[in-house]
Every structure is written in C-alpha cells, then in structure tokens.
Amino acid sequence: MPLERTTALVVARQPSTDKDPGGQQEDFGKSSPLGLLLLVVFFIAVFFLVKSMTKHLKRVPASFDTEETAEGDGKAAKKE
Asked: Where are the transmembrane segments (predicted)?
C-alpha cells in the first residue's frame, strides 16, 4: 500500500501600515462594555471584602496575653 504525502504551504504576511503607521489596528485602545461591567463587579467585591476584614479586625484583642498566661510566665521565672 503506497503512502501519500501531502505538502502544505503556510504564508504569513505583515499587516499593511498605510492607514495605520504605528502598527496599531483600528480597535487599539478601545474597551467593551463587558470589561467595564467586570471592573465594576471587582470594585464592589473589593469594597465588601475590605468592609468584612475591618469588621473582623475590630474583634481582635489588642494583646493575646491573658492574665493566666502572664501569671504562668511569672511562676516559671520564679522557679528558675
């Protein structure tokens, strides 16, 4: 059974710069309304995350040392 060979030729061409001398296409710098919507959703999510984190950080005590821990350290220092 003979094998058939197929050859493919791919040609790449640079876009013309006649109408666009900077190499930027006509859509350069434009954004879609979907991008704006996504950005707004991210800002809303960050707002609620900051609000939640602030609420949790207010509940954190100024010091994690309790009276029992301070007394325990004093007793340990006296034994030495």
From this structure: 31-50
